[in-house]
Design a protein that fits this description.
The complex is a heterodimer of chains A (380) and B (373). With 380 residues, chain A is α/β, with parallel strands linked by helices. Chain A folds into 2 domains: 142 residues, Creatinase/prolidase N-terminal domain (Creatine Amidinohydrolase, Chain A, domain 1); 220 residues, Alpha-Beta Complex (Creatine Amidinohydrolase). Helices cover 34% and strands 24% of the residues of chain A. In chain A, strand 10 and strand 11 form a beta hairpin. The longest helix of chain A has 23 residues. The two termini of chain A are 29 Å apart. Chain B has 2 domains: 140 residues, Creatine Amidinohydrolase, Chain A, domain 1; 226 residues, Creatine Amidinohydrolase (Alpha-Beta Complex), CATH 3.90.230.10. Chain B has 10 helices and 17 strands. In chain B, the strands form 4 sheets. A 6-stranded mixed β-sheet of chain B has the order 4-3-2-1-5-6, with helices on both faces. In chain B, strands 7, 8, 9, 10 and 17 form a 5-stranded mixed β-sheet that branches. A 4-stranded antiparallel β-sheet of chain B has the order 11-12-15-16. In chain B, strand 5, helix 5 and strand 6 form a beta-alpha-beta unit. Helix content of chain B is 36%, strand content 22%. By secondary structure, chain B is an alpha+beta fold. The chains are: A alpha/beta (380), B alpha+beta (373). At the A-B interface, helix 5 and helix 8 of A face helix 5, helix 8 and strand 7 of B.
């Protein structure tokens, strides 16, 4: 949960960066005859809201209403007493406190001159039904359109500020894991995940998710940590959030004297991953990348590989390597400045050995930049 | 045990469907509100969104948007069928039709369920009446079974251990976020699957708790927190305040008011007591001490709340709440508010309502703590 440090460092995220985003959006709204844009966010998903306000709720939901001029109005169910804290973390200074954010949106909309009778909703897939119904009732002549596409297109091109935040999140993940490996004395999965939480939060992460798998889980892949005993080798996936930006990495941690069969799998995984990386660049399609990975793999080995991309880790689209890819998945082509997460897992169905490598990349013209760069195999 | 638990929950829901003449119940959960689906299907929503559909046919279908989680869902959940979904309204509509739901459908979580899903279902079935079943399901969930109370006892034990760590590390010079990191480690180490925590430190100008800042704890300040671990789905919360260095007269006086308010409420916390009385009796203590103003929404949110599969669930302990306490409810009585004596202060424990009176589930001493040097 979002229990980590939340603070706005103006040097790291200049006010100008957020103002630039708002102004670009306002131009597009003007071109599209959109009177207002409602950006809804809750604890789970607040990417678009954060993009234009530098604010994400840690408990109660919030919505930002943007019009073609000004910096927007935020409405939230948080207590009015938290106003100065919100203002210290957000560009938006006009904050309206309303227990029911649906009502909050309505009240703000009532104060806006609706020239075109067109209001865009961002994250329409998530926008709550009751609030939507009330707005439709109150404004029967207004067209409420799904404006997620316009915003997502803007957000998919990462700015240098954003890339640096993702890189920082990656450094937290790598640093935390490296530090753990130096003092590896964990008996249970929950002990390990507890220490990861501590390490990452000391490094100023806002939120973190940990997923684990080991030999004893049979054919099962990553899962949420339990109170079960840990095995000698463990696969770890860490999703780390820093200033609202996520980096995802996965590694396999092994004892110095691991089983020879596992070491063989490790060598194979590292080689395949390196080959896959060469095809991670602008203009390359998903099928080409998966084709590269599939070559030279023994039939007894199951490949668990995916390419994920998205604007926020909770809503990212994950395409798994398999023979039944949908047409839309097959047509995905990597683009410059796109952030992707590349996972390669190998599972030996006979020995049940497993090996995982996973990193977050920024796609470039000729190669991908690894934003979570650390050793592939961690030994203790 | 779990099978009995599932059958018992199913029976309660079927009774509700009968009473309200509903053809079925759709429940919605997301990572922030996993409670409804967890209760019905024992599925822990992991990223993405999930729905359950239950009709009078007694067939439980679980819909999940994370397609690679189907195997885990089939293994762990109570659902008869797990369906991965891309367009929820489409897949849900198919199942609604298959299960013969034609007249009335209750939706638990309607207020935060995506408009696109519900509107899509309504388009498919214009004659179908969709009503909110959120309160009904929350009311069913409010009375905890023996299994649930067992889980909440374990969660309460983690509260104690988390606060013990808080006390151990809450010293001059540590930053708020570093202190939270220590608690995170401890509660996870003890088996918490998730944890919610807010914190504040400072003097009389502290108005509320927030996520941690990079502020250091200082001598003479008060540091306060809510430690709220989740164990096997169930949340419990402990609220305590700690003085750094020494306890000033104002701090002690303030805490005495909080303590007395809580004690008064606990004296009447038994089955049959209207929730409003729990709030009124606490507020009365503040009024008697000359601080009635600080019981309003301007300074505080509530006098406590229920706990369970969501960390802050009904009954909200507030004046005017007409709900009545029942055996098996787990609530936290906390008069957390700002007072000009020593700033914002917190105090409270998870409490099980029994026929023999309230049972406090945590064991941490109920006092204002001091980290002395």
């Amino acid at each position: 949960m979002k229990n980590g440090l939340i603070i706005w460092d103006h040097q790291e995220i200049p006010e100008q960066e957020i103002k630039r985003r708002i102004e670009t959006m306002q131009k597009r709204m003007d071109e599209g005859n959109i009177d207002a844009l409602i950006l809804f966010g809750d604890v789970n998903e607040a990417g678009a809201l954060n993009y234009f306000s530098n604010f994400a709720p840690y408990y109660f939901s919030a919505a930002l209403i943007l019009t073609c001029v000004g910096e927007g109005i935020m409405t939230t169910a948080m207590a009015q007493r938290s106003k100065s804290w919100i203002q210290s973390n957000s560009l938006i200074q006009d904050i309206r406190f309303q227990r029911d954010y649906g009502k909050g949106c309505l009240e703000v909309l009532k104060g806006i001159e609706l020239k075109y009778n067109k209001v865009g909703i961002v994250e329409f897939d998530l926008f709550p039904y009751t609030a939507f119904l009330n707005m439709k009732k109150e404004f029967p002549d207004v067209a409420f359109i799904d404006a997620s596409g316009i915003v997502n297109e803007m957000r998919s091109q990462r700015s240098p500020v954003e890339i640096s935040l993702i890189r920082h999140a990656g450094q937290i993940a790598c640093g935390s894991l490296e530090s753990l490996v130096r003092n590896w004395e964990f008996k249970k999965e929950c002990e390990l995940s507890g220490e990861i939480e501590r390490q990452a939060r000391y490094r100023r992460c806002e939120d973190i998710f940990v997923h684990i798998a080991s030999h004893k889980n049979g054919l099962r892949w990553l899962h949420l940590p339990t109170e079960e005993e840990l095995e000698q080798e463990v696969m770890l996936e860490m999703m780390v959030q820093y200033k609202n930006y996520w980096a995802v990495m996965g590694r396999t941690v092994l004892p110095k004297h691991a089983r020879p069969s596992l070491v063989d799998l490790k060598i194979q995984a590292e080689s395949i991953y390196s080959k896959g990386l060469k095809s991670l660049k602008s203009g390359i399609g998903i099928l080409d990348i998966f084709g590269e990975i599939r070559n030279d793999v023994d039939e007894s080995i199951k490949i668990i590989s995916s390419i994920s991309f998205g604007l926020y880790v909770e809503s990212m689209q994950r395409i798994w390597i398999n023979d039944n890819l949908s047409t839309s998945d097959k047509n995905v082509v990597l683009q410059e400045n796109m952030e992707v997460i590349f996972q390669l897992g190998l599972l030996d169905k006979g020995s049940l050995n497993k090996f995982l490598i996973q990193d977050t990349f920024l796609i470039g013209k000729n190669e991908a930049q690894n934003l979570t760069e650390t050793k592939y195999a961690m030994t203790y | 045990m779990l099978e009995e638990e599932f059958k018992s929950r199913l029976k309660k829901i079927q009774t509700y469907l009968e009473e309200k003449e509903l053809d079925g119940l759709l429940a919605y959960s997301m990572p922030w509100r996993k409670d409804h689906v967890r209760y019905i299907a024992n599925y822990r929503t992991w990223g993405g969104y999930s729905y359950t559909l239950l009709s009078k046919m007694d067939k439980l279908t679980l819909f999940i948007t994370i397609s690679d989680d189907v195997e885990r869902a089939e293994e762990e959940s109570w659902a008869d069928k797990v369906v991965p979904v891309k367009e929820p309204s489409r897949e849900l509509s198919t199942e609604i039709k298959n299960q013969g739901i034609t007249r009335r459908l209750g939706v638990a979580g309607l207020e935060f369920c995506p408009a696109k899903t519900i509107a899509g279902i309504q388009d498919q079935f214009p004659q179908l009446e969709i009503i909110s079943s959120s309160n009904a399901l929350v009311n069913i969930r409010a009375i905890k079974s023996d299994y649930e109370i067992g889980m909440m006892r374990k969660a309460a034990r983690i509260c104690d251990l988390g606060f013990q760590t808080f006390l151990e590390y809450a010293h001059q010079g540590i930053k708020e976020y570093e202190l939270v990191a220590e608690i995170e480690r401890r509660v996870r180490h003890e088996g918490a699957e998730d944890h919610f925590m807010i914190i504040a430190s400072g003097g009389k100008d502290t108005m509320c708790m927030t996520p941690p800042r990079d502020k250091e704890l200082m001598f003479g300040e008060l540091v306060l927190t809510e430690v709220t671990p989740q164990y096997h789905g169930y949340w419990t919360q402990i609220c305590r305040s700690v003085a750094i260095g020494n306890i000033s007269k104002e701090m002690q006086r303030s805490h005495d008011i909080f303590f007395r308010a809580t004690e008064e409420a606990l004296k009447i916390a038994k089955p049959g007591t209207p929730i409003t009385k729990l709030a009124e009796i606490q507020n009365q203590v503040f009024r008697e001490e000359g601080f009635g103003e600080y019981t309003s929404l301007k300074w505080t949110r509530s006098r406590g709340h229920g706990q369970g599969l969501h960390l802050d669930e009904p009954p909200l302990i507030a004046e005017g709440n007409e709900m009545v306490l029942q055996e098996g409810m787990v609530i936290i009585v906390h008069p957390n508010t700002y007072l000009p004596l020593a700033g914002y202060m917190v105090f409270g424990d998870p409490t099980l309502i029994t026929n023999n009176g309230p049972e406090i589930l945590t064991q941490t001493e109920r006092k204002l703590f001091c980290q002395s040097y």
